[in-house]
Amino acid sequence: YTEAWDADKKSIHIMPDTPTILLAKANAANVSHKLYVQAWEEAKKKGYDMRADAIPIQSAKASRDIASDYKYKQTHEKEKGHYIGCRTAQEDPKLSWAARAMALQNDRIYRKAYHDSKAQVHIPVDALSVQAAKECQTLVSDVDYRQYLHQWTCLPDQNDVIHARKAYDLQSDNVYKSDLEWLRGIGWVTDGSVDVVKAKKAQELLNERLYRTRPDEVKFTSITDSPDVVQAKINALQLSDVR
């Protein structure tokens, strides 16, 4: 049954410019992997020159930075809003510890240059500030201030020695108070002193007995015929039990 068909297939001749053949060739070219990568393979064989400031390179770097920043903050974005129990950053132990560590680190870095250079200071010996400090030290030094003078040898009958001795005697406290030595042990009556007289006057002013006179001590003579005295006598006679 198929023998005649197989014989006919071998004897069929189709023109190469027919539409069907052309369409089949076009479809084969579209799906061919060899033709798809042929331009790329030829470009690779020729080589390429890509500069660092080319637009594709800049675009790739920007895309990489965006992706890196996103990956870096991905964990933070996931944990954002899940902190519980700390109203402020100072109450969070981890944040407080991180802030303290950062402050210590900054202080250490801030003082590093000073600690490295504090032992490397070289001051010349003839500097103006050093000379001034030496002069001040000499002025305030107790050793240089107290310099004992040498012993002078003077005759006791020299005029300047006699004059100095008299001046010392006049300035001496013992000589100044020597005229009061004869007063020691002498008694003194204070009756006529100013303080005693003042105290007596004050006592007289404050004495109520001298200030107010009692009525029974005042001498007076009553009038016998006055109306009140006569009335008092009449009342006394009326009230008298003897009468």
TrEMBL record:
Pfam families tied to this protein: Nebulin
InterPro entries: NEBU/NEBL, Nebulin-like, Nebulin_repeat
Cellular component, GO, one term: Z disc
Keyword Transmembrane helix: no
GO annotation (BP), single: cardiac muscle thin filament assembly
Protein known as: NEBU protein
GO molecular function, one term: actin filament binding
Protein source organism: Pedionomus torquatus (Plains-wanderer)
Keywords, ordered alphabetically: Actin-binding, Repeat
